[in-house]
Amino acid sequence: MSNLLILPLLLPAVCALALVFIRTQSRLSRIFSIGTMAVSTIISLLLLVYVMYNKPIALDFGGWKAPFGIQFVGDSLSLLMVTTSSFVVTLIMAYGFGRAEKRAIRYYLPSFILFLTVGVIGSFLTADLFNVYVMFEVMLLASFVLITLGQSVEQLRAAIIYVVLNILGSWLLLLGIGLLYKLTGTLNFALVAQRIGEMDNQSSIVIVSMVFLIAFGAKAALVLFMWLPKAYAVLNTELAALFASLMTKVGAYALIRFFTLIFDEHDGITHPLLVFLSCITMLIGAFGVLAYKDIKKIAAYQVILSIGFIILGLGSNTYAGVNGAIFYLANDMVVKTLLFFLIGSLVYVTGYRQYRHLHGLAKQEPFFGVAFVIMILAIGGVPPFSGFPGKVFIFKGAIENGNYLGLALMIITSLIAMFSLFRIFFVMYLGNEKKGEEKIFKAIPVYRKSLIAILVGTVLAMGIIAPLIFKVTDNATHLNMDDGRYEKAVNPHLKKEAK
């Protein structure tokens, strides 16, 4: 079973290379890429089910046991993230590039999307510090190409900020890895966590943890958000959905993994700081969604807002808060894909990014109304939609830890997030046309409506089957937060050696 763990990473990597040779056959390339990601999603889901009924899967490359060799670990947290990301990438590949299909093929964009996916999945599966850096770089190099290649001057300007901040974040990450290796003498997650718990020089660990917090925070857009709105606003629909569903979520995943498993000894310092940063991030997101009339920038600030919610749950350092953060992280991958599909479709059918130009759309596309309202209610955390269960547990965690300010901000900013999107909805469907004005909208392809419908169904399903998903997130929470449980489950031989 452990050998199957490499397939969710290997399949998109092989497909990305194969697309280079068959790129002139667009139909075959499209079928191959969608099929590959669909198979990867199914395999990831089966591995997740296996792990839930058994124990985490550890894959030691070359037969070298940890901590000497490269190790991948499939536990409930990593495989939940892999399954969700593979699912959304499948839909993004199916969404396609529309009129830009020929240009996308010419610039190898499908291959770069899959290479980015390889980096994301590798970041979820790797169980050693250096390979976190390697996988982040694979992901970032692909994203640098996607954000700049063959696009507008506006996008190139936005890309400068994106590239500079991510390079600085990568440098800090490498610095943190070096410092942590110097302190512990190992790169393996399980052994690092074990040795940190046995160390007397705890002040050094606090300093190193701050380096990792800044590095991962920059990638998650935690306060350091400057690159995100401009970059997302000028990306094509499918690329904006890709970035919104994956890029910041990898940073959030890393913060959850590191600050529950490794840097959990000084929760009186690091976790209150996480709560403070989450509150600032929520305020930034709230001001952003209110300040702009550009629907793409409103959607970009919705991404920032959701990161604040996730980190608030992590910062509470309670089982309920972290459980809710993991659930909301998986949910947000799906919801933000739906958000950018809808926003991109609105821009496509109307030709405008300002929501004041959207009035009259109800007469032609009532389908958008249903999908848009469901998406708004999911983002707002209204039951029974998928945003509700995660927020309830984050609320509970904030109350248990006394984070009443964070709780109040989360409630207020959730309402602001809903208001900003309902404002678009009301203009679309209730806005009055000027006298004598006749709006002509483009028709959106049926297959794209079908993809939106799949995401709407998923959002509804995640809310309905939340108790089943919580079994996964609860397992992930206890595995990472219970002292010694991860080490014992993944690398029991290391525990024996320590004794």
UniProtKB/TrEMBL annotation:
Predominant subcellular localization, coarse grouping: membrane
UniProt subcellular location: Cell membrane; Membrane
Origin superkingdom: Bacteria
Topology in the lipid bilayer: Multi-pass membrane protein
Keywords noted in UniProt: Antiport, Cell membrane, Ion transport, Membrane, Transmembrane, Transmembrane helix, Transport
Residue span, NADH:quinone oxidoreductase/Mrp antiporter transmembrane domain: 128-416
InterPro entries, sorted: CPA3_Na-H_Antiporter_D (IPR050586), NADH_UbQ_OxRdtase (IPR003918), ND/Mrp_TM (IPR001750)
Segments traversing the membrane: 6-24, 31-53, 73-95, 107-126, 132-149, 161-183, 203-227, 239-263, 269-292, 299-322, 334-355, 367-385, 405-430, 451-470
PANTHER family linked to this entry: NA(+)_H(+) ANTIPORTER SUBUNIT D1 (PTHR42703:SF1), NADH DEHYDROGENASE (PTHR42703)
Membership in a protein family: Belongs to the CPA3 antiporters (TC 2.A.63) subunit D family.
Name assigned to this protein: Na+/H+ antiporter Mnh2 subunit D
Source organism of this protein record: Staphylococcus casei
